[in-house]
């Protein structure tokens, strides 16, 4: 997730849930093609701590897909995922992300380009369709023919953006029609949701449910492995969460430096305190922190 799944977040997730597959933020194939410094930095990962690691790419130029895919493979990623689901106006207006659902030929060409360039698996993340879920099966069959190794489907159309409830029924139907792994996505907030929604699919993908609650990944992985949906997190008092929150800050500082690391931690810190007593006042202070010591000073008082 853009602005969220940086290396610190991925490492934290893997510490809590070693079985999880982690993805990079979505990265522009144009930027990778031209070797843009910021994007190359966002691709950096720790192979000891972040495997399996999938780099998600977006774009529309097949040649840039070819060269970007090569770069991703050379830097050691375990897979490439192509974003055909982002509904943001700045993305779709340049025919990137979910706009590719309106251009199936180009979408397939992009898959073919990436596949031609690398040996690692190439998957696609997309939505139910642009206007309607009737588009899902024909669109995805084309991607499979073009060589896609797996599909992850967010159960909303482009037009729905993030409104309403994700509809997983069309995803189950898709799974019956294709022979590659299909992962479902949308509105999984806890282990019970993951078990209830898995159906005939090969996995579930979690986004917003982890905001301020990375522990949920541990619950979900345990549930998918053993069927045990008992949550250890729901009962965890906030003060027991503080060491991990501080560890998240430590990772952010280590990987991005204190200034940028703490700036980027602000949104996570605001999510961590959501729902606890005094959250409003705490959030107001946490979104202004500049140093790791600022965070420690605020949170350590809550531990007593
Ligand atoms: C802040 C934010 C950033 C996101 N960035 C990405 C992204 O880079 N790539 C992607 O495939 N989906 C991205 N998504 C979409 C999520 O991966 C996911 O498909 C969507 O939120 C629905 O799943 P959820 O209900 O588990 O969050 C993003 C969502 C949010 C809220």
Explain what the structure shows.
This protein is an alpha/beta fold and 304 residues long. The chain has 14 helices and eight strands. The protein folds into two domains: 7-226, TIM Barrel (Alpha-Beta Barrel), CATH 3.20.20; 238-303, Orthogonal Bundle (Non-ribosomal Peptide Synthetase Peptidyl Carrier Protein, Chain A), CATH 1.10.1200. The protein has helices at residues 7-16, 29-33, 37-43, 62-74, 89-92, 104-117, 136-146, 169-177, 191-198, 216-226, 238-256, 258-272, 279-286, 292-303, and strands at residues 22-23, 27-28, 53-58, 79-84, 122-127, 150-154, 182-185, 203-205. Strands 1, 2, 3, 4, 5, 6, 7 and 8 form an eight-stranded parallel sheet that branches. Helix 4 (62-74) links the parallel strand 3 and strand 4. The relative contact order is 0.09. The structure holds flavin mononucleotide.
């Amino acid at each position: 997730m853009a602005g969220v799944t940086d290396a610190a977040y991925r490492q934290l997730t893997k510490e809590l849930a070693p079985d999880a597959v982690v993805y990079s933020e979505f990265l522009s194939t144009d930027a990778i093609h031209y070797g843009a410094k910021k994007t190359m930095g966002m691709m950096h990962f720790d192979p000891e701590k972040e495997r399996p690691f999938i780099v998600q790419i977006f774009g529309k130029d097949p040649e840039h897909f070819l060269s970007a895919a090569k770069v991703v493979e050379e830097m050691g990623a375990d897979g490439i995922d192509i974003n055909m689901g982002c509904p943001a106006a700045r993305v779709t207006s340049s025919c990137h992300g979910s706009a590719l659902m309106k251009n199936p030929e180009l979408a397939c060409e992009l898959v073919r380009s990436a596949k031609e360039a690398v040996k690692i698996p190439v998957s696609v993340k997309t939505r139910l369709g642009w206007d309607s879920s009737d588009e899902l099966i024909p669109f995805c069959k084309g991607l499979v023919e073009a060589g896609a190794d797996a599909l992850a489907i967010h159960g909303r159309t482009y037009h729905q953006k993030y409104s309403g409830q994700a509809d997983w029924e069309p995803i189950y139907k898709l799974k019956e029609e294709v022979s590659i792994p299909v992962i479902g996505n949308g509105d999984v907030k806890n282990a019970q949701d993951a078990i209830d929604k898995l159906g005939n699919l090969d996995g579930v993908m979690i986004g917003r449910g982890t905001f301020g609650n990375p522990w949920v990944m541990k619950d979900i992985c345990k549930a998918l492995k053993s069927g045990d949906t008992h949550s250890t997190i729901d009962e965890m008092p906030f003060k027991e969460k503080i060491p991990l929150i501080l560890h998240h800050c430590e990772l952010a500082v280590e990987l991005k430096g204190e200034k940028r690391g703490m700036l980027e931690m602000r949104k996570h810190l605001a999510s961590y305190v959501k729902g606890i007593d005094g959250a409003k006042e705490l959030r107001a202070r946490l979104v202004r922190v500049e140093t790791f010591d600022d965070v420690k000073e605020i949170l350590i008082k809550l531990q007593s």
